[in-house]
């Protein structure tokens, strides 16, 4: 059942041909709150205040833990050499290298005058985006001197509705700000709003090229932001929580942990 599902998924999403085979490489047991992945096919697991890193075959590599900052809110591994971890309760983020070693002091956004930051992610220019709840705006921080060089302005006024975002990501020169009630707000890398994608009810998603990959009611879906084409793949296991796709690896988070599949 799973093998058939994997074939359909990768044919539809990655379009690498029909001669695909899948193999379960590893099951990582344990309670996982969030998973992330990078372009090198590494897997990152968040377990409360601990971040663990595994290679593409499920081999444990290293971990990071700073329990003085509270539960780890989110991980951005878009750059595997510079991983960002964000702690919402303390409005701080920490940068890690590829061994999950801290590369500098935690950056406290409160010290820069922002006391209600709920989301943060990396930017293409090695800078940082964060969402300031107080002014309902996205703010870009320069990597050079941590100065503020771009802002969107009040997003609620731009879209003419109340907003409550819960997920932030920059990918392919676009900034994606998710609001479960309203959809996904799209901005360019300069902070200019230009579109809302009407996918609602999401907590997180992955962007691969022009496709948004997400789970909706235990069904795996894709949406092409350029062609507006939608694809749907039913999932055989209702316990699946989230899915990540990286080249020849499929990472499936479920109620028992995470399964790593090889796709040939």
Entry keywords:
4-stranded antiparallel sheet; 6% helix; Neuraminidase; single chain; disordered N terminus; 264 residues; 2 helices
Please describe the topology of this protein.
Layout: H1 2-13, E1 22-29, E2 34-37, E3 43-47, E4 50-54, E5 60-65, E6 74-76, E7 83-87, E8 92-96, E9 107-108, E10 117-122, E11 128-132, E12 137-141, E13 148-151, H2 155-159, E14 167-171, E15 174-179, E16 183-188, E17 193-197, E18 206-208, E19 211-216, E20 219-224, E21 230-234, E22 242-246, E23 249-254, E24 257-263
Antiparallel strand pairs: 1-24, 2-3, 3-4, 4-5, 6-7, 7-8, 8-9, 10-11, 11-12, 12-13, 14-15, 15-16, 16-17, 18-19, 19-20, 20-21, 22-23, 23-24
What strand order characterises the main sheet?
A: 1-24-23-22
**β content, as a range?**
over 45%
Number of domains: 1
- Output the radius of gyration: 18 Å
Give the name of the CATH superfamily.
Answer: TolB, C-terminal domain
Instruction: Please identify the top-level CATH class.
Output: Mainly Beta
Oligomeric state of this protein: single chain
Round the mean pLDDT to the nearest integer and report it.
89
Helix content: under 10%
CATH architecture descriptor name: 6 Propeller
Count of distinct strands: 24
Structural class: mainly beta
State the order of secondary-structure elements, H for helix, E for strand. Answer: HEEEEEEEEEEEEEHEEEEEEEEEEE
Largest sheet: 4 strands, antiparallel
Termini separation comes to 17 Å
Report on this model:
By secondary structure, this protein is mainly β. It has a single domain, classed as TolB, C-terminal domain (Neuraminidase, 6 Propeller). 6% of the residues lie in helices and 47% in strands. The protein has two helices and 24 strands. It has helices spanning 2-13, 155-159, and strands at 22-29, 34-37, 43-47, 50-54, 60-65, 74-76, 83-87, 92-96, 107-108, 117-122, 128-132, 137-141, 148-151, 167-171, 174-179, 183-188, 193-197, 206-208, 211-216, 219-224, 230-234, 242-246, 249-254, 257-263. The strands form six sheets. The chain has a four-stranded antiparallel β-sheet with strand order 1-24-23-22. The chain has a four-stranded antiparallel β-sheet with strand order 2-3-4-5, with no helix packed on it. The protein starts with a helix and ends with a strand. The model is unreliable at 1-8 and 11-20 (pLDDT under 50).
